[in-house]
């Protein structure tokens, strides 16, 4: 009987200690504010979303909005550059608090990640080499080769149409492969292709189809630990949308307001 009482008491003490520990453990938002930094994943090579200027400073629409979010939380942004295919995995593992890199919201992604409210609405384009007369829409991609980042929605779209995807890390690699004829097409963000053509008017590529895209939002790890962070970020975004800061950033980088 004494042994049973001791075991029962030990179990109760352990349970109470575990409960107290769980209640005292700060969630992700509290840890970010205690740390003083918001760790943000980004590529740094996808203009005009996130790239390096002539002075090698990290700039871009997502860099400015990421900074806005960090300041709204009362902390400093800490941007960590990585390849696209490591961004979401890093968010999932807790290496990054959030990703600011033109991440499209999809129902499939929402099963694994918690997303903020959308901050931008974009379009998708199908681009080919200037002398290509075989491809006019994504339905013509069966048996063709495209270039896109691995795990991107654009790569998934191409594969769904029967295309063979060559994986690349940057938009520049995509354009080079396209101009050299090593791939037949690419599906990409309209703003990125428009920005490239504006800077390189002699580029040997053309847009043959424009499609509606998914909204862009910021993903964080999906669990109860991150719920308060998503709520706080949504509040900051709502205020920036209402006072015109989001629209101003969009117009700065895209020449138009894509926030509505």
Write the layout of secondary structure elements.
Blueprint: H1 2-24, H2 28-35, E1 37-42, E2 51-52, E3 58-59, H3 61-73, E4 76-81, H4 84-93, E5 98-99, H5 107-110, E6 113-115, E7 120-129, E8 145-148, H6 153-160, E9 164-167, H7 171-179, E10 185-189, H8 190-199, E11 205-216, E12 219-221, H9 227-242, H10 245-254
Parallel strand pairs: 1-4, 1-5, 8-9
Antiparallel strand pairs: 2-3, 6-12, 7-10, 7-11
Helix pairs in contact: 3-9
Would you kindly provide a written description of the structure presented here, covering whatever features stand out?
This protein has 260 residues and is an alpha/beta fold. The chain folds into two domains: 28-119 and 217-254, D-Maltodextrin-Binding Protein, domain 2; 122-215, D-Maltodextrin-Binding Protein, domain 2 (3-Layer(aba) Sandwich). Helix content is 43%, strand content 23%. The chain has ten helices and twelve strands. The protein has helices at residues 2-24, 28-35, 61-73, 84-93, 107-110, 153-160, 171-179, 190-199, 227-242, 245-254, and strands at residues 37-42, 51-52, 58-59, 76-81, 98-99, 113-115, 120-129, 145-148, 164-167, 185-189, 205-216, 219-221. Strands 4-1-5 form a three-stranded parallel beta sheet. Strands 10-7-11 form a three-stranded antiparallel beta sheet, with helices on both faces. A two-stranded antiparallel sheet has the order 2-3.
């Amino acid at each position: 009987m004494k042994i049973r009482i001791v075991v029962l008491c030990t179990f109760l003490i352990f349970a109470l200690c575990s409960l107290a520990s769980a209640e005292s453990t700060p969630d992700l938002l509290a840890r970010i504010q205690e740390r003083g930094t918001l760790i943000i994943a980004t590529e740094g090579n996808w203009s005009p979303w996130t790239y390096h200027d002539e002075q090698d400073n990290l700039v871009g629409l997502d860099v400015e909005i990421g900074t806005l979010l960090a300041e709204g939380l009362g902390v400093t942004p800490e941007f960590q550059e990585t390849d696209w295919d490591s961004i979401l995995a890093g968010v999932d593992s807790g290496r990054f608090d959030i990703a600011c890199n033109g991440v499209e919201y999809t129902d499939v992604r929402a099963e694994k990640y918690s997303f903020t409210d959308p901050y931008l609405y974009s379009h998708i384009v199908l681009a080919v080499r200037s002398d290509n007369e075989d491809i006019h829409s994504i339905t013509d991609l069966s048996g063709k080769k495209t270039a896109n980042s691995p795990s991107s929605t654009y790569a998934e779209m191409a594969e769904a149409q029967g295309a063979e995807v060559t994986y690349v890390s940057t938009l520049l690699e995509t354009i080079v492969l396209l101009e050299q004829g090593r791939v037949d097409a690419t599906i990409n963000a309209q703003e990125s292709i428009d920005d490239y053509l504006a800077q390189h008017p002699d580029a040997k590529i053309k847009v043959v189809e424009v499609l509606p895209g998914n909204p862009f939002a910021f993903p964080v790890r999906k669990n109860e630990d991150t719920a308060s962070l998503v709520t706080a970020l949504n509040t900051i975004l709502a205020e920036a949308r209402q006072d015109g800061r989001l629209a101003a950033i969009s117009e700065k980088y895209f020449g138009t307001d894509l926030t509505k």
